[in-house]
TrEMBL record:
InterPro entries: CPQ (IPR039866), Peptidase_M28 (IPR007484). GO terms for biological process: peptide catabolic process; proteolysis; thyroid hormone generation. SUPFAM superfamilies: Zn-dependent exopeptidases. It comes from Hippolais icterina (icterine warbler). This is Carboxypeptidase Q. Belongs to the peptidase M28 family. The keyword Plastid does not apply. Its main location: endoplasmic reticulum. Keywords: Carboxypeptidase, Endoplasmic reticulum, Glycoprotein, Golgi apparatus, Hydrolase, Lysosome, Metal-binding, Metalloprotease, Protease, Secreted, Signal, Zinc, Zymogen. Transmembrane segments: none annotated. GO terms for molecular function: carboxypeptidase activity; metal ion binding; metallodipeptidase activity. The keyword Metal-binding applies.
Length: 189
């Protein structure tokens, strides 16, 4: 059984793609790294996917889906971060009402960093195939006021990233992915 965390590498045609979507790739990598460094061993596999070809029609995600859809019942949740890694506010979630209640309960663990909101929909080109077929999905919600200042521009460099805000995003990704991966049962569909 798999809990999938992800971001994509798509610097597109200008800039470095540090914010879009290097930040999402980084926090996904960091989540697994933190869990390993803490010596935690969840019941389910945590899988990191760094998608390619998102801007070219999601070809990387489509290929991955085609290769793994026969095991769709083993995917507990698919998570994608693709709105930068600015100050987080919560998660977008797509799934059953019962699963949403569980995710809301998990988000209360993030009260110390004031990131507890659960929004009505999850977005993500790379996880859309899975969500369409009933796999619960989550996307990071953060303060996107500055997102389009840098989106697909020469200004999308590492200088855009705020290490403190990225750490908060990584904390959200780490807590949510670990708790779901370590629950007794998979999220209800």
């Amino acid at each position: 059984q798999v809990v999938l965390v992800s971001g994509h590498l798509d610097s597109w045609d200008v800039g470095q793609g540090a914010m879009d979507d290097g930040g999402g790739a980084f926090i996904s990598w960091e989540a697994l790294s933190l869990i390993k460094d803490l010596g935690l061993h969840p019941k389910r596999t945590l899988r990191l996917v760094l998608w390619t070809g998102e801007e070219q029609g999601g070809v990387g995600a489509k290929q991955y889906y085609q290769l793994h859809k026969e095991n769709i019942s083993n995917f507990d949740i698919v998570m994608e971060s693709d709105e930068g890694t600015f100050k987080p506010s919560g998660l977008g979630f797509a799934g059953s009402a019962e699963a949403r209640d569980i995710v809301k309960e998990i988000m209360t663990l993030l009260q110390p960093i004031n990131v507890t909101d659960v929004y009505d929909t999850a977005d993500g080109t790379d996880i859309a195939y899975w969500m369409r077929d009933g796999v619960p999905g989550a996307s990071l919600h953060d303060d996107i006021n500055k997102y389009f200042w840098f989106h697909h521009s020469q200004g999308d460099t590492m200088t855009v990233q705020d290490p403190n805000q990225m750490n908060l995003c990584a904390a959200v990704w780490t807590v949510v992915s670990y708790v779901i991966a370590d629950m007794e049962d998979m999220l209800p569909r």
